[in-house]
Amino acid sequence: MIDLKLDSRHDLLFKDNKLVLVNGINQKAQQIKVVLLTFLGEWFLDTTIGLPYFDDILVKNPDSSRIHAIFRKKIMAVAGVIAVEALSLEFQRKERVL
Predict the structure, then answer these.
(1) Which helix (H) or strand (E) holds 29?
(2) Which of the listed residues 3, 24, 51, 90 has the most CB atoms within 10 Å of its CB?
């Protein structure tokens, strides 16, 4: 599968005034990154897409096992992903950062 490549700011990447394409493992990694950066309800055309950051993840007392399950489920839902071999999440409670 081929996709449009995004730069580090998540904008379309142009080289020599042409859109850059991405495929293979890099496309899959980009697709997973896009899924994980999307908040539930963010896209007005389909409010069921995204992760429940405000409801379940970025809350006062987060349930780490539930958050791991949410991330695994969303990653596994990406076409072509057959397994999540390792998933490491670091909570910084004082800074409220995941």
Answers:
(1) helix 24-37
(2) 51
Q: Rounded to 10 degrees, what is the CA torsion of 54, 60, 66, 71?
A: 50
Per the CB < 8 A criterion, the answer to whether 72 and 64 are in contact is: no
Over residues 60-97, the pLDDT tens digits come to 888 999 999 999 999 999 999 999 999 999 888 788 77
Please name the helix (run of DSSP H) or strand (run of DSSP E) that holds residue 3, with its range, or none.
strand 2-4
- The rounded distance, in Å, linking the Cα atoms of 35 and 46 is 13
Can you give the pLDDT at residue 25? 92
List all residues 6 or more positions away from 64 whose beta carbon is below 8 Å from its beta carbon: 89, 91
